[in-house]
Amino acid sequence: MSESRRERGLAMRRRVMGDEHVDRALSSATSLNAPFQEFLSEYCWGQWASDGLDPRTRSLVTMAILGALGRSQELSGHLRGARRNGCTDDEIRECLMHVAIYAGIPAGVEAFRLAVAAAAEAEGQAKQ
Predict the structure, then answer these.
(1) At what angle do helices 5-17 and 19-27 cross, to 10 degrees?
(2) pLDDT tens digit string along 6-51?
């Protein structure tokens, strides 16, 4: 039996965002937002699990979109996920420079502020 889109999406969500993040989101779901959590796993992360783009490329695209839209909390999580997907500091830098050019310097400033924090967090975890 083939894996459902929801199962593939949930696996990709865990791969990119990490088990701790996903477990926290799912365990804190209420009757109000539990259907939304299912929607995220099946449709958003299910699309991430499709064959059209590899996860590393999707991370770069997602960072650019979130940076341009000024979605700081989501961008912060996806900066961490980009590292899990193999994006290098050089690639993240170039992606965010592109955001600054096309979405404006304030968007770039915020994106780089978050990127520096995510890099420091990753470095701290690597030392443990």
Answers:
(1) 120
(2) 999 999 999 999 999 999 999 999 999 999 999 999 999 999 999 9
Give per-residue pLDDT as tens, 65-114. 999 999 999 999 999 999 999 999 999 999 999 999 999 999 999 999 99
- Do 46 and 67 fall into the same domain? no
Which CATH number is 101's domain given? 1.20.1290.10
The pTM of this model reads 0.88
CA distance 109 to 7: 37
Q: How far is CA 5 from the centre of its chain?
A: 19
Whether residue 67 sits in one domain with residue 33: no
Q: How many domains does the chain have?
A: 2
Contacts 24+ apart (CB under 8 A), 94-102: 95/60, 95/63, 95/64, 95/67, 96/63, 96/67, 98/64, 99/63, 99/64, 99/67, 99/68, 102/68
- Which residues constitute the domain of residue 115? 54-128
Distances in whole angstroms, Cα of residue 9 to Cα of each of 3, 16, 55, 90, 126: 10, 10, 12, 28, 27
